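Q: My labmate handed me this sequence with no annotations at all. I'd like to see what the chain might look like in three dimensions before we decide whether it's worth expressing. Could you predict it?
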Amino acid sequence: MEQETKIFGIRAVIEAINSGKTIDKVFVQKGLKGELFQELDSLLRKNAVNISYVPIEKLNRLSRNNNHQGVVAQISPIEFYDLDTLVTNVSESGKTPLFLLLDQLSDVRNFGAIIRTAECTGVDGIIIQKKGGAPVNGDTIKTSAGAVFKVPICKVDHIKDAMFYLQASGIKIISATEKTENTIYDVSFKEPCAIIMGSEGKGVSPSVLKLSDAKAKLPMYGDIGSLNVSVACGAFLYEVVRQRL
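A: Here is what I predict for the chain of 245 residues:
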């Protein structure tokens, strides 16, 4: 599956972008030059595509030594949803909206596990940022057990923009963070809400926390002090299910 979602070569990647394909990430050989590459580079920046500059050995591995011309792109195997359309459709459906925002989550297996739990708990949509987050690739699909094809996923330029839009639509933003006295059992998830899960290392970023309507943490009794983000997300989502039953 992962091999099927990669394309190689400068011209091929340019054509893919121009034809409207969703490019998750482009790996570019360090020091690559030339007119055709300049054309690609400006196109990538215009479309805010995630770029990673890597040694040629990495590209050889990614392309299995195909003629990559210094460029390998990861194409998303799914179509992403428009946030405005998704929120409107969910609001008009008559159910109480539940969204999930992922703030710079980087591990594809965590991402896949979260999508799987989201599908099982009735999440209406997952919102991720275009840059800096985990891609939807073969590993994501496998770990999600196919749920990636069932839960709408939106890509936005900035998580904060999505937060403003959701708040303006009457949806409460709740951040999962240990930087609060409130546990998940002190917060109401019964009204329309969106839960923000942070990155594996840093958690929810401070600027995002400031804009949140509420914060909640999981009570911890062990010495380690933190859970894997996909496990923590599952605990949050099942508290939503419990409250809404």
